[in-house]
Design goal:
The chain has about 110 residues and is mainly α. The protein has one domain. About 75% of the residues lie in helices and about 0% in strands. Helix 1 packs across helix 2, helix 1 packs across helix 4 and helix 2 crosses helix 3.
């Protein structure tokens, strides 16, 4: 796997990651808490992408791992800000997957 392939794969994963992250996040959380979850999700997605794309042996190549992680992180933040947040799809998923209390259901 080359650095360009790692970066490309990372960007592809990162572009859809905000939709997956929205399932876990809650509308009432602070912006800081949401950012922490987003960065942790990008880290986990980066690790999974490297392992899936090139196998566990790829982790010995720090440049490939870093390129994949930063590709996932940059693409996830960019796609959220430019696509998923303005279209209200990610916030809608957050609201949809948030368990309502009996008082909120009324």
């Amino acid at each position: 796997m080359t650095t360009l392939n790692a970066l490309t794969t990372g960007v592809q994963v990162g572009a859809v990651l905000p939709l997956l992250t929205a399932v876990v996040q809650r509308p009432a959380w602070s912006a800081k808490a949401k950012k922490v979850v987003a960065v942790l999700a990008a880290l986990l997605a980066g690790v999974a992408t490297v392992a899936t794309d090139g196998g566990w042996d790829q982790f010995q190549h720090g440049k490939l791992t870093a390129a994949t992680f930063f590709g996932v992180l940059a693409a996830s933040q960019t796609s959220y800000d430019l696509l998923w947040k303005p279209t209200k799809l990610a916030p809608w998923i957050e609201a949809l997957t948030t368990k309502k209390t009996p008082q909120q259901a009324e």
